[in-house]
UniProtKB/TrEMBL annotation:
SUPFAM superfamilies: YjbR-like. This is MmcQ-like protein. It holds the Pfam family YjbR. It comes from Galbibacter marinus.
Length: 123
């Protein structure tokens, strides 16, 4: 997936907004104000295509041991975030979508029940 496809996929989810809270080059996707995905746009332009995604800590470890392109989250909590490098074909688009969905779902599960209900009403 390219950055435009990732953008469209993330923005298509209920309650998602884009933000640049750190600098003008770090695109952050949030659900109800909580981060679930980050992309360094300058890195993408230079060919270092990656995305940071929230992940269940146990699954994060399993993913890192199974895929050379999945590393502990760059500049993030290493326990809860992975950096997924997309420079080769190891991470297929369908699997990347699964990882994005998982990240989104992790954040939604942590929201207040009222916000979760509002999001489910948007479906």
């Amino acid at each position: 997936m390219n950055i435009e496809e990732i953008y469209q996929y993330c923005m298509g989810k209920p309650g998602v907004t884009e933000d640049f809270p750190f600098d003008k080059n770090t695109l952050v996707f949030k659900v109800c104000g909580k981060m679930f995905a980050l992309c360094g746009l300058k890195k993408w332009e230079s060919g270092d295509k990656s995305i940071n995604l929230k992940c269940d800590p146990q699954w994060a470890l399993e993913l890192r041991s199974a895929f050379t392109q999945i590393k502990p989250g760059y500049h993030m909590s290493k326990k809860h975030w992975n950096t997924v490098h997309l420079n080769n074909q190891e991470i297929q688009p369908g699997f990347l979508k699964e990882l994005i969905d998982h990240s989104y779902d992790m954040v939604v599960k942590g929201l207040a029940k009222k916000l979760q209900q509002e999001l489910s009403n948007e479906l």
